[in-house]
Design goal:
The protein is built from eight helices and eight strands; from the N terminus they run ααααβββββαβββααα. It is α+β, with helices and mostly antiparallel strands. It is elongated, with a radius of gyration of 39 Å. Bound molecules: zinc ion.
Length: about 300
């Protein structure tokens, strides 16, 4: 490398960027034509820049991506938990509290065409009603109960409602009032069709059966999990399936506590299904995060 090479190399960066005067350009090109070393130097400068930084940041970016997904999972986990709590809260606030019968609870108004209106007192937030015709067709029997709930008591008062009873032909109307825990239904309107003995409307037990089915399923799947605990693939499938009945059982505890009988079985069942979904998500995400946390700890040691 001679003296002029040094001068040319000082100029090369400017030459590459086209930031030299015509005179300098000619000078550089004239030198390059006769100097292989400087030609090599120029070629190196003109070659597309490799990004050495990339090789350093790749694992870092991977880690960042993993942390990002982990954070997303934590956010979803929190959201699912909040949702489960919210559904449980709403179910608790709207759970019917059955009102014992009193004269102010409901009143009757019979029209000439045989239709009878039932008007409910102020404390009533809702009612359940089932009706049927007697076997001989002369009577129209109605079983009714009224309830209030915390939502209506403290948050938003529901309007006083009324119900309409419409018997066919000349049927006479008989209305019984039932309430949780009462020994028998109370006759509150019409003639007693069960003069010889009491009649009682029983709460439905369907939730108890569902609870037992879910518990049995969970037990069977737990056994399968134990049997296949060495086979990662099968164990994972069994695990995800097992969490379904477990979520149902937890959902039942959220909505009904340890009670299984219900006058509002359909409402309770839907509430359980609704709360079961976020609970299932919480289980899946929690297991996933726990597994990652464990793997990270094992990798550290
Ligand atoms: Zn040179």
């Amino acid at each position: 490398m001679n003296h002029s090479c040094n001068v040319i190399r000082d100029l090369l960066p400017l030459y590459v960027e086209n930031m030299v005067s015509e005179e300098t350009r000619l000078l550089v090109e004239k030198h390059l034509a006769g100097c292989a070393d400087c030609q090599k130097q120029l070629a190196a400068m003109q070659a597309p820049q490799k990004l050495p930084a990339d090789t350093i940041t790749a694992p870092l970016r991977k880690l960042k991506g993993r942390l990002f997904w982990q954070r997303i999972e934590v956010i979803f986990l929190t959201a699912a938990l909040i949702l489960a709590f919210a559904i449980t809260g709403v179910a608790y606030l709207t759970a019917p509290e059955y009102l014992p019968y009193s004269d102010e609870l409901l009143s009757f108004h019979a029209c000439e065409d045989g239709t009878t209106f039932i008007t409910f007192g102020e404390e009533v937030a809702g009612y359940d009603l089932s009706s049927y015709s007697t076997q001989d067709g002369s009577g129209y029997v109605c079983h009714i109960t009224a309830w209030n709930n915390l939502w209506s008591s403290y948050i938003a008062k529901s309007n006083t409602q009324s119900a309409v009873l419409k018997p066919e032909g000349n049927q006479t109307i008989t209305v019984y009032y039932y309430v949780d825990g009462a020994e028998e239904d109370t006759l509150i309107f019409g003639r007693d069709l069960h003069a010889d003995g009491g009649i009682v409307t029983l709460p439905r037990l369907v939730l108890a059966y569902y609870f037992l089915i879910a518990a049995a399923l969970a037990a069977v799947l737990a056994m399968l999990w134990f049997v296949f605990r060495q086979h990662d693939k099968i164990r994972n499938i069994v695990e995800k399936t097992l969490l379904l009945p477990v979520s149902y059982l937890v959902g039942h505890l959220c909505i009904k506590g340890f009670k299984t009988s219900s006058y509002a079985a359909q409402r309770d069942f839907f509430a359980i299904l609704l709360v079961m979904m976020p609970i299932y998500c919480v289980f899946l995400l929690a297991i996933n995060l726990l597994r990652k946390y464990r793997a990270k700890r094992q990798a550290r040691f």
